[in-house]
Automatic annotation (TrEMBL):
Protein name from the UniProt record: LacI family transcriptional regulator
Keywords: DNA-binding, Transcription, Transcription regulation
PANTHER family per record: HTH-TYPE TRANSCRIPTIONAL REGULATOR GALS, LACI-RELATED TRANSCRIPTIONAL REPRESSOR
Boundaries of every HTH lacI-type domain copy: 12-66
Domain of life: Bacteria
Gene3D superfamilies linked to this entry: 3.40.50.2300, lambda repressor-like DNA-binding domains
The keyword DNA-binding is assigned to this record: yes
Classification via InterPro entries: HTH_LacI, LacI/GalR-like_sensor, Lambda_DNA-bd_dom_sf, Peripla_BP_I
GO MF annotation, one: DNA-binding transcription factor activity
PROSITE patterns: HTH_LACI_1, HTH_LACI_2
């Protein structure tokens, strides 16, 4: 959309891009707006012209025409301390950001845990500010996804909903991953296998505990919250109550790293005395001594699938609410 002000400022206009590319104004508009209804040859010519002229789309004008903000919120329901401490979040942000950038979309990163942060978040997430929202680390039956959908803000979440079949989500097969890890410990001759759980108000925490119980039944369990500190405290409780433990499945690498510190403090050799497996296959697993055996969940693919599902919703191709569950794999290292 050309204005006298843009001409006066010397900023390249849509018409100038069209002239340089040898195409119509409408073709340039479709390329700028990410439409697929453009031939590869015309798209390349327009992109070359944009680069040569230094053209920058007028985002406010585009919003008036398309009724879109070209912004997507990535909302993480944890403290800032937890966000920066756990590698899972960094890998997910990197994956999501790379896809959004390729689609010329802005990512608005929001971290909310305290009640006041939550109130500000709910006030901001409207169609006037964002087209859609990607939600990470929801706890319990959080009403926010339904609230946003009622407002017309498309949502996709990490993790299946706790007690409802509605909502679009992407998840790893947490139960199968935990089951494989614990079955491996059993196959190695371990007889007293304990678990350190994640938070049980999250689907991932419940599913990983269920996978452990699929193999062990009612074995020794200590509860954590995915943090290293909770892994340390849980390992301490397990050793106090079950001193004959010879293997531990921890529902995250950070908790496994905490457990490893406690085992070392008590002189328990890993893996000779106690085998140890984590979950996530994060950078943490590579930097412990010994390196952690861990369940790899495809975080990069999860992020890409979240964006794909969200963009399908925004483009009107969302047929039914549902989810995608991606497979995990066990990565064997020195701790087991």
């Amino acid at each position: 959309m050309t204005t006298d002000r843009s001409r006066a400022s010397g900023r390249p206009t849509l018409e100038e891009v069209a002239l340089r590319a040898g195409v119509g104004r409408g073709t340039v508009s479709r390329v700028v707006n990410g439409s697929a209804q453009v031939s590869p040859r015309a798209k390349a010519a327009v992109e070359d012209a944009i680069e040569e002229l230094g053209y920058v789309p007028n985002r406010a004008a585009r919003t008036l025409v398309t009724q879109r903000t070209d912004s997507v919120a990535l909302v993480i329901f944890e403290s800032g301390e937890r966000f920066f401490a756990e590698p899972f979040f960094g890998r997910m942000v990197q994956s999501i950001s790379s896809v959004l950038v390729a689609r010329n979309l802005q990512m608005v990163l929001m971290i909310a845990q305290a009640p006041e942060e939550r109130r500000r978040l709910e006030g901001y997430l409207t169609r006037q500010h964002v087209d859609g929202a990607l939600l990470l680390s929801l706890h319990g039956d959080d009403p926010l996804p339904a609230l946003l959908e009622d407002r017309g803000v498309a949502t996709v979440r990490v993790g299946r909903p706790m007690h409802t079949d509605s909502g679009t989500f992407v998840d790893a097969d947490n139960r199968a991953g935990a089951r494989e890890a614990v079955a491996y410990l059993r196959s190695q001759g371990r007889r007293r296998i304990a678990a350190i759980t994640g938070p049980l108000d999250m689907a991932a925490g419940l599913a990983r505990l269920d996978g452990y119980r699929d193999v062990v039944g009612d074995g020794p369990v200590a509860f954590g919250d995915f943090s290293q500190e909770s892994g340390e405290a849980a390992m301490q409780r397990l050793l106090d109550q079950y001193p004959d433990v010879d293997a531990v499945f921890a529902a995250s690498d950070t908790m496994a790293a905490g457990a490893l510190r406690v085992l070392r403090h008590y002189g328990r050799r890993v893996p000779q005395d106690v085998a140890l497996i984590g979950f996530d296959d994060s950078v943490v697993a590579l930097h412990t001594e010994p390196p952690l055996t861990s369940v790899d969940q495809p975080i990069g693919e999860m992020g890409r699938e979240m964006v794909r599902l969200l963009l399908a919703k925004l483009d009107g191709y969302d047929n039914d609410d549902g989810g995608i569950v991606l497979p995990t794999r066990l990565v064997i290292r020195g701790s087991a």
